[in-house]
Structure formats: C-alpha cells, structure tokens
UniProtKB/TrEMBL annotation:
<dbReference type="InterPro" id="IPR006048">
    <property type="entry name" value="A-amylase/branching_C"/>
</dbReference>
<keyword id="KW-0479">Metal-binding</keyword>
<dbReference type="InterPro" id="IPR006047">
    <property type="entry name" value="GH13_cat_dom"/>
</dbReference>
<dbReference type="InterPro" id="IPR031319">
    <property type="entry name" value="A-amylase_C"/>
</dbReference>
<protein>
    <recommendedName>
        <fullName>Alpha-amylase</fullName>
        <ecNumber>3.2.1.1</ecNumber>
    </recommendedName>
</protein>
<dbReference type="Pfam" id="PF02806">
    <property type="entry name" value="Alpha-amylase_C"/>
</dbReference>
<keyword id="KW-0106">Calcium</keyword>
<comment type="subunit">
    <text>Monomer.</text>
</comment>
<dbReference type="InterPro" id="IPR006046">
    <property type="entry name" value="Alpha_amylase"/>
</dbReference>
<comment type="similarity">
    <text>Belongs to the glycosyl hydrolase 13 family.</text>
</comment>
<keyword id="KW-0732">Signal</keyword>
<keyword id="KW-0378">Hydrolase</keyword>
<keyword id="KW-0868">Chloride</keyword>
<dbReference type="Pfam" id="PF00128">
    <property type="entry name" value="Alpha-amylase"/>
</dbReference>
<feature type="signal peptide">
    <location>
        <begin position="1"/>
        <end position="23"/>
    </location>
</feature>
<keyword id="KW-1015">Disulfide bond</keyword>
<keyword id="KW-0326">Glycosidase</keyword>
C-alpha cells in the first residue's frame, strides 16, 4: 500500500509522542530502590542532609517535596498556604532557589531522586494586595499576578464548583475559591512549561501534579509533552522523561475518572488509601487481601501511586474520611504500611508528617514563621514537633524489604479465614501479620533457605545476633511464627539479607 511522505512523517511523530508519554511512568530511581517518601514541609537544607545521612543509606529511592514556588503568606501560616501560588519564583519557607538547587544535587549524589509537588491548576484566592514568600505582590480579586505575569485573560470565568457530577464545573470553576487558570491558553502553557523546565534543569526527576482532576487531560498532555527530558548534567541518561504522578481523587460516583489520566502518567490511587484503612481498622478482614490490586477497583499496578495516607486525607480532607489511618493510630498504621511495602502492587510512597491537633496547623516553627528543623533522637526517631514516620524502624526496614524482594511474585498465601495472614515474595522474603484478637502461633512456609533470621520489624541484625525476634527456618522452608495479640507490633518480616 502506498503511503505518502506526510503519512510517514505523521506516523514517526506519533511514535515519538507515544514513546515520550510511555516513559513518564518510570520514577527514574537508582537501581535497587523502589519507594519515595513525602517529607511534608521540610526545609531544603534539612532534606539535603537527610538524603545523605538517612534516606540514601536506608535505601529510599526519592523524596516528594512540598511546592517550591512562591506562595501567598496567610495569617497563622497554615500548611495549605503552600498551595496558593503567587508566582513561579523558587522562594518559599523551605528555602530559596540556591538552597533548592543544592538540595537536589546532594540528594541525586546520594542516590535519592527529587519529585516536586507542582501547583498550576490555580493561583491564590482572594487576598487584597496579597504578599508572597518571595516579596511579590498580587491582586487576586482582579486575577492580577504581575510576578508571573498573569492577568484576568489567563483565567476561566469566576464560578464555584457545586456539582462534582459536572466535569465542566470541576475543571473550569474555582476549587475552594482559588483563581482557576485556563491551561488551554498558549500564554499559560508557556509559563507552566518554563516553570517545569526550570526545575528539570536543576536536576529533579519528576512531578506530582496537584489538582490534576481539575484540569482537562488534553491541556495537560500538551504541557507534559513540552517538558524537557531530564538533565544529563545531573546524571540522567539521554532521553529520560520526567516521572509524572497526577492527583486525581476518584472513589467512584463522580464525572471525572482517574482512567482519563493514565495514558499520560501515573495517578495517585486514593482508593488504595481508603481500602487499606478500612481493612486495618477492622472493617474488612485481612483474609480478603488475597486478591489485593485491580480486583479492588484499583488502577493497574504500573499506573498506581499508592500510600496509606497523604498530607490531605490524614487530616480528614480529600477522600476517605474516618477510614484513613495516620500516625495517631500507630500500631495499625505500621501494619498497613508493612503490608503495602511487602505486597508487589503499585508504586509506593511513605508519608512523613509533623504532629498536628488542628487540621489547618502548619509545620513546627522557631518564631511562628520560620520552619524549625527536626530534632533526631538516638533511636532514629524525630522530635521537636516532627513525626518522621519514615524513620520508624518498622517502616524503613520494610522499605529495605521491598528493595530486596523486587521482581519476585507473591506466593504461598496463608490465612486463618479471618485476620491472620502470611505470604512469601519469591524465595527472598516472608511476612506475617496478626490483626486478630488472638495470638498467631503456627508453622508456616517461609520459602527461605534453612537458617536463623532476624525479624526486621522488632529489631535488626546486629553482628551474629538479633536485637529483636529471631526466626528459625527448617530444611523444608517452614518456621514456627509467633505474633502475640498484645505485642507492640502486629507483624513479622524476614528476608534473605536478615539471615545470620
């Protein structure tokens, strides 16, 4: 069949376009790493040190950082002021552009990638002569943001989102009164692409796209395809595309579906957070986790960015309500995190919080404005108002577990027909979880070679002994597994590298 040159050129263009889009699903981790952590509201200087001293050595693959661009200053400094942009200048309470660039460089050198939470669905809400963290001013009431610059012609008409079953309202009207940018306009696209490309030039590995649900997929596709490949100067291979994960809250029953975004990048799977919370709160039995994944109405594994909680829903915002687990329910939270990290489904993100009593409360400060640095204790935990779940032994050791068992399948599932479960990851790892009001004490197949193993939940391998529990595996791969109902941790995990 004859094909014109135009058809050939079009086919070649579409092939390149498809290649670019498909490449946006790879987190670009250093080999052997599988999990990112969200260091919510941390300062850039502190993140740099954490990459070097803890995240790199413990095997974390990346950090999601809070929005990096200038935001409006709100009285009492709530956390959500970071989600009210006033310009794309890289100046926030976390630091300035130089500090950000230094942090990205140092984290990349430590084998830890940086993913930026980018906010370009909207600008700030009504604040007369609003002042930003970089000293810029704006008049949001008149949709005037001269530091970008944006004017009223760059925004959708003013309207409120009243009906989430109307996708035109969801995408064209104002989320919580925030001035809604029109991403179909070339000027807006240019400014957003310039912003994203600036971050790429500084060495970031990808982006969390805030409020993607509130933007038209066709507009996002244009923007994503104009973003530069990752920087070879920062160690990324030639032609590497930025990792894109998009915030789309979809628990069903609304006009906008998460499936509308999966051809462009990964999507934050809020149904995973909601469902894992229900299970470990005792509202579903652990035995039903046997088919965890798309059969629970989740996205396919390679399209799902999964988490136990995030900065929104841990406060009761967004989706999931009272079912969401957070650090305040620590035993169940650790159990859910261990299951998430042990199971092969999804692209995993660990939350790292600051303590809060009020859902608007901002991060710890030294003077009511300046963010305070975490205080690190001898046992790796944090204080000074920081929770640092990523430094909990039960979580960081399971991040290591996931790295070690990567590429293996889940096998030898066992349950007691209720809330005690266990499974292997190939012949590299084994995990057991007890959610019952009774002890777990039985012989189970671990799929591991004979020997004595240290339980990485209760302690670590320390020379030729274990600081926590030990598990003796026989020549048949079986071991007696014991988890008491009243133990501090409701799970046990061993892997080939925890063998004495």
């Amino acid at each position: 069949m004859y094909r014109s040159k135009a058809h050939i050129y079009l086919a070649a263009f579409l092939a390149i376009l498809c290649q670019n889009i498909n490449a946006q699903f790879d987190p670009n981790y250093v080999d052997g790493r599988t999990t990112m952590v969200h260091l919510f509201e941390w300062k850039w200087d502190d993140i740099a040190v954490e990459c070097e001293n803890f995240l790199g050595p413990k095997g974390y693959g990346g950090v999601q950082v809070s929005p990096v661009n200038e935001n409006v200053v709100v009285a009492n400094r709530p956390w959500w002021e970071r989600y009210q942009p006033i310009s794309y200048l890289l100046t926030t309470r976390s630091g300035n552009e130089q500090q950000f660039a230094d942090m990205v460089r140092r984290c990349n050198n430590a084998g830890v990638r940086i993913f930026v939470d980018v906010v370009f669905n909207h600008m700030s809400g009504d604040n007369v002569n609003a002042r930003g963290t970089g000293g810029s001013t704006a008049d949001p009431s008149n949709k005037s943001f001269p530091a970008v610059p944006y004017s009223s012609t760059d925004f959708h008409d003013t309207c409120a989102i009243n009906d989430y079953n109307n996708k035109y309202e969801v995408r064209n009207c104002e989320l919580s009164g925030l001035k809604d940018l029109d991403q179909s306009k070339s000027w807006v696209q240019d400014r957003v692409v310039d912003f994203l490309n600036k971050l790429v030039s500084l060495g970031v590995a990808g982006f969390r796209v805030d409020a993607a649900k509130h933007m038209w997929p066709t507009d996002l596709e244009v923007i994503y395809n104009r973003v530069s490949n990752l920087s070879v100067d920062h160690g990324f291979p030639t032609g590497t595309r930025p990792f894109i994960f998009q915030e789309v809250i979809d628990l069903g029953g609304e006009a906008v579906s998460k499936n509308e975004y999966t051809h462009m990048g990964v999507v934050t799977e809020f149904a995973h957070s909601n469902s894992i919370g229900r299970v470990f709160r005792g509202k579903d039995k652990l035995r039903w986790l046997v088919n965890w994944g798309p059969e629970w109405s989740f996205l396919n594994s390679d399209r799902a960015l999964i988490f136990v909680d995030n900065h929104d829903n841990q406060r009761g915002h967004g989706a999931g309500g009272a079912d969401i687990l957070n650090y305040k329910t620590s035993k169940q939270y650790k159990m859910a995190s261990a299951f998430m990290l042990a199971h092969p489904f999804g692209i995993t993100r660990v939350m790292s919080s600051f303590a809060f009593d009020n859902t608007d409360q901002g991060p710890p400060t030294t003077d009511g404005n300046s963010i305070a640095s975490p205080i690190f204790n001898a046992d790796n935990s944090c204080s000074g108002g920081w929770v640092c779940e990523h430094r909990w032994r039960q979580i960081y050791n399971m991040v290591g577990f996931r790295n070690i068992v990567a590429g293996t399948n889940l096998q030898n599932w066992w349950d007691n027909a209720s809330n005690q479960i266990a499974f292997c990851r190939g012949n590299k790892g084994f995990v057991a979880i007890n959610g019952d009001a009774a002890d777990l004490n039985t012989s189970l197949q671990t799929c591991l070679p004979a020997g004595t193993y240290c339980d990485i939940i209760s302690g670590d391998k320390a020379g030729s002994s274990c600081s926590g529990k030990s598990v003796v595996v026989g020549s048949d791969g079986r071991a007696n597994i014991s988890i008491g109902q009243n133990e501090e941790d409701g799970m046990l995990a061993i892997h080939i590298e925890s063998k004495l």
